[in-house]
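Sample pair:
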Amino acid sequence: MRRTAIIVAVAFVVVVVVVVVVGGLAVGGGGGSDDPESAPCPATRVDGQYVHAGRFTGVISPDYDVLNGRFRLRVGAYRAATTGLTQKILWSVSRQARVGARLRIEARRLPPLSSRTFRLTLGRTSAMGDRKRWFFPSVIKPPAEGCWRLRFTSGRTAGSLIVLVRD
């Protein structure tokens, strides 16, 4: 009886350790070091080939931009530099939203890594025959690995998302 209780207790501890380790590694890792892979990143969940930042919707490439169901990009302009595949993302928003002629994206790297920023300003366009949405084409070029918060602002419309950036 005592031996069975010990085996059950050890099995329980093993299961708890596996759940904690696997759960912590789901997107970014577990600890608090300066290694971008060791810090957990609450990256925004994706919806098929779409990622949302408030009312703004980005069309992404799931084969490259999704890690464990969450939004992920690579450092620089390319998803795959060897093939020349850039990190083009077409952002759209309903024409009912109060947006301006430009979409500003301000990005800030989140702790525990040192603070860094980058900015993009995108021009608004439309698609022939589409009278329901405005479009803002982009090539996002994160300068370094880490967990980044991207804030989107155009006119009176704003949104944000979090992206894990790593190679």
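Residues 30 and 96 are 42 Å apart (CA to CA).
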